[in-house]
Amino acid sequence: MNRFPPVFISNRPVYVIGQDEKVPFADVVIRLSGNEPEGFLKPMLRSFEENRLASALVFSSPDPALVFEQMLAGYRVIEAAGGIVISPNGRLLMIYRNGLWDLPKGKLEPGEDPAAAGLREVEEECGVSGLSLRGETEFTYHTYAYRDEAVVKRTVWYLMDAEEENEGTPQTEEGITEVCWMNRTAAREALQSGFASIRIAVEPYWELLRD
To answer: Do residue 31 and residue 134 come from a single domain?
Structure first.
């Protein structure tokens, strides 16, 4: 298993793996020697971002930790937390934000505990209560531009249980227009046209949902 989660650039994954690790499917695989100069990743990542025909990029290196660190160094990292919330009926809490189905998540406040932030963001964005934490699950990374600055959002996801399927109230000031509980089939279909990083976050938990 790869030690580092993919970083999604323009909704497409960039993987960093060790030389002996299994190579994920990708259009472009770059095998590094470990002697590359500082800053060598930046033009490669820019080229990948501009080449929309490439579906994925892999860097294979004898020092994948250093490559992953250097890749993130090209961005301002924003810490965020979110929830994979499952009801007693085996349905997933989803939000419709800015024209796409998504999961509730948001930035940490200064000094805020990530688990507390995850619960707060779910409650604020969805208007639901009665949530309990099962624990931390996955990290996802995705990049975007904010005020002409290159940003990577690192989101820690928490698996949560809901006491009941509250109707919910969308936080419209955050671009959310709908809150919905979806079964497995509906959630899979909704996320197909959404963010790939969200599908990665949910992938290990499909068996907890019902059709």
So the answer is: no
Can you tell me the distance from the alpha carbon of 43 to that of 39, in angstroms, rounded to the nearest whole number? 8
Q: Give the type of residue at 114.
A: P
Give this prediction's pTM: 0.92
Q: Tell me the CA end-to-end span of the chain in Å, nearest whole number.
A: 29
* 82 and 184 belong to one structural domain: yes
Count the neighbouring beta carbons within 10 Å of the beta carbon of residue 92. 25
pLDDT digits (tens, 9 = 90+) for 17-48: 999 999 989 999 999 999 998 889 999 999 99
Residue 29 CB burial class (10 angstroms; 0-12, 13-18, ≥19): middle
Low-confidence ranges of the chain (pLDDT < 50): 1
- Alpha-carbon distance 120 to 106, whole Å? 9
Considering the domain architecture, whether residues 151 and 125 belong to the same structural domain is answered as: yes
Which amino acid makes up residue 21?
E
